[in-house]
Specification:
rod-shaped, 7 helices, 5-stranded mixed beta sheet
Length: about 350
């Protein structure tokens, strides 16, 4: 046990010496550590100061940047709004421009159509001017033609009047000759158709075709008138034929009346050609006879006066169609102006 105590005491003594050698080194070490920590803290503080300043500056810069960004965003928003308005205006302007373009195209098309129509109207006007000029020239020719035609018409009218006067002259001579021979103006007259009408009682007895003796002077005067008239070539050229036609009333049968009227016409014709020394025999080609019986009454057969008027001999002087046609053709031979057409067709 003593050994043990001694040993323990020795160990405490050794331990006290060891602790005294350890602590000075630890203190130095701790001092160094503390100094290092101080420097570190100082550095950290300084760094914090610097970082705080930088952070503040950064915050201020950030705030300024935010303000600028806000202003920029507001400006951008205003710009976008303005741009939207501008786009809307541009769109509207484009629509208006498109409409104006369409209207301009339509106006251009309308103008082209109007120009085309104007050109067509100019051509029509030019054609009308030419037509008017042609018509004016034609009218001038027509006026010349009408003047010449008027002169020809006057000449033709004069010739026709001459023919009419000649015809009327011979008829009046026949009538006057019969009146002088018979002394009765009621027995001979000139009808509306230009024929000489001789009453039956001058030439024949009732129902007879034999010429009465007292009719000879009147028929001889008739021969003299025809001979004088037809011997003149200027008169004869217009005469086609001289027709002696017999007519009766309705008394008796149609056949007997037709025979009686024909016999009476032939009796007058025979007397004219054979009487007064056969003066008219050379002119026999102008004469002919026809009997119509009761078919051509000039009055009613219901009265005696009417029947008496129907019993008659008519002398017709037929003018030559050729003579009249020669007068007409001389008018038609006028040269027509160019462009004038004459319709020669006649209605059926």
């Amino acid at each position: 046990m003593k050994r043990t105590a001694f040993a323990g005491s020795r160990r405490r003594s050794d331990g006290s010496q060891g602790e005294q050698g350890f602590w000075p080194s630890y203190a130095d070490m701790m001092s160094a550590v503390a100094l290092i920590l101080f420097f570190l803290m100082l550095l950290s503080y300084i760094q914090n100061l610097i970082t705080g300043n930088d952070l503040q500056n950064t915050q201020e810069l950030l705030e300024s940047t935010r303000l600028k960004l806000s202003e920029t965003q507001k400006s951008l928003s205003d710009t976008e709004q303005s741009l939207s308005i501008t786009r809307s205006e541009v769109t509207e302007a484009q629509e208006q421009l498109s409409k104006i373009t369409i209207d301009l195209d339509e106006a251009r098309l309308t103008l082209q159509e109007q120009q085309s129509e104007l050109e067509s109207q100019k051509q029509d006007l030019a054609a009308q001017d030419k037509l008017l000029a042609d018509q004016a020239a034609l009218i001038g020719k027509q006026e010349d033609y009408l003047k010449a035609a008027g002169e020809e018409l006057l000449a033709m009218r004069s010739q026709m009047q001459t023919i009419a006067v000649l015809r009327l002259s011979i008829l009046e001579q026949i009538r006057d000759s019969f009146v002088r021979a018979t002394g009765d103006a009621n027995k001979v007259n000139i009808a509306d158709n230009g024929n000489i009408i001789l009453s039956e009682s001058i030439l024949f007895d009732v129902g007879s075709s034999k010429i009465k003796d007292e009719a000879a002077p009147a028929l001889n005067q008739l021969i003299t008138v025809f001979d004088k008239f037809l011997s003149d070539d200027e008169n004869a050229k217009y005469v086609d034929s001289i027709v002696i036609s017999g007519h009766t009333d309705s008394t008796g049968t149609e056949e007997s009346n037709r025979i009686l009227s024909t016999d009476r016409a032939n009796s007058v014709l025979d007397y004219l050609l054979l009487g007064s020394g056969k003066k008219l025999t050379p002119l026999a080609g102008y004469f002919c006879a026809a009997g119509y019986g009761e078919t051509r009454p000039v009055a009613s057969n219901q009265t005696e006066a009417g029947r008496s008027a129907n019993r008659r001999i008519e002398i017709s002087i037929i003018l030559k169609d050729d003579s009249i046609l020669d007068v007409v053709e001389s008018y038609l031979e006028l040269e027509l102006p160019e462009g004038v057409k004459v319709d020669t067709q006649t209605e059926p």
